[in-house]
Amino acid sequence: MKAVFLDRATFSDNVALPAPDGIDDYTVYDSTPQDDDIIVERCVHADIIITNKVILNRAVIDRLPNLKLIQLTATGMNNVDMTACDERGIAVKNVAGYSVDSVPEHTFMLMLTAMRAGVHYHRQATDGTWQADGRFCLLDTPIFDLAGRTLGIVGKGAIGQKVGQIATAFGMNVLYAERAGKPPRDDSYTAFDDVLARSDVISLHCPLTDDTHHLINDETIGKMSKKPLIINVARGAVVDSGAVVRGIERGQIAGYATDVFSQEPPPADEPLLALHNHPRVIITPHNAWASHSAQSRLWGILCKQVSEFVGG
């Protein structure tokens, strides 16, 4: 079968990505512009498309007569017109479970860095501030331990649960939030508004849906009585970034650590970028998922899925 990989550059250069077994004609592009004609030109003879972020809409899918499988290199499937695929009998497969270590570890990197003002103190230790001050240590910004604090987790999937396990090892009290506006389904969940009110740190691990779009907004921030740190390793649009900026400026929340934005990369006028020097604002470029081990694990899962498809 003929396969085309449209955006290899969404992986690290030093991660091996061999062709899946059963593929005898394999073309790899570092990136593919979001242009229907170019996508069709590259894929018109393909049986299988492998991609991460290239949008495959109906206009493209309808012009690919040989297409049998769209294999995504991610969990999210919102960049594919699923209805068009169903109508044509085209299979769509995603990859899940590859980042159950990488994302929780990144979550705690963000949490610890923000709670201990790590980037702020790194700057002071290297830009001459420490030398100019002369004291043996600098303590202008409070440093907070995790032990004894309450972590509210929104999203109780595999990643959310792993974050909870790590938090327990740090001595944190863990609350899993029920869906907003719903009563707790069992004793392992806490009402959403109660989690907002009781948490010192709120960590987001939920999918982006109509219900979770701008779940963190002016209203919900107003319910956060303990002025928590908010961490977002879910999707950018789960949070209203303008509301987060206002919450920080008003002292309603302590800070914001995020790996995701509604538009990636964020535009120059993204409100959060103006707070990049805040001691508890930490921004990473959507790479929480991407430890070397996680990328290798992802490709292994993908190869197995493609090979099984090819083998019938």
Give an account of the 3D structure.
With 312 residues, this protein is of the alpha/beta class. The protein folds into two domains: 2-98 and 292-311, NAD(P)-binding Rossmann-like Domain (Rossmann fold), CATH 3.40.50.720; 101-283, Rossmann fold. Helices cover 31% and strands 14% of the residues. The chain has eleven helices and eleven strands. The chain has helices at residues 36-43, 58-61, 82-88, 102-115, 118-126, 129-133, 158-169, 192-198, 218-221, 241-249, 292-310; strands at residues 2-5, 25-28, 48-51, 69-72, 91-93, 150-154, 173-176, 201-204, 229-232, 255-258, 281-283. A six-stranded parallel sheet has the order 7-6-8-9-10-11, sandwiched between helices. Helix 7 (158-169) links the parallel strand 6 (150-154) and strand 7. Helix 4 packs across helix 7. The model has no long low-confidence stretch (mean pLDDT 97).
Beta-strand fraction estimate: 5-15%
Q: What is the count of helical runs?
A: 11
Distance between the termini: 12 Å
Largest sheet: 6 strands, parallel
Structural class by sheet pairing and helices: alpha/beta
Walk across the major sheet and give the strand order: 7-6-8-9-10-11
CATH level-four homologous superfamily name of the largest domain: NAD(P)-binding Rossmann-like Domain
Would you list the SSEs in sequence order as H and E? EEHEHEHEHHHEHEHEHEHEEH
CATH topology of the largest domain: Rossmann fold
Anisotropy-based shape? globular
How many strand units? 11
Family: Belongs to the D-isomer specific 2-hydroxyacid dehydrogenase family.
InterPro entries: D-iso_2-hydroxyacid_DH_PdxB (IPR050418), D-isomer_2_OHA_DH_cat_dom (IPR006139), D-isomer_DH_CS (IPR029753), D-isomer_DH_NAD-bd (IPR006140), NAD(P)-bd_dom_sf (IPR036291)
Pfam family, one: 2-Hacid_dh_C
Domain D-isomer specific 2-hydroxyacid dehydrogenase catalytic: 22-312
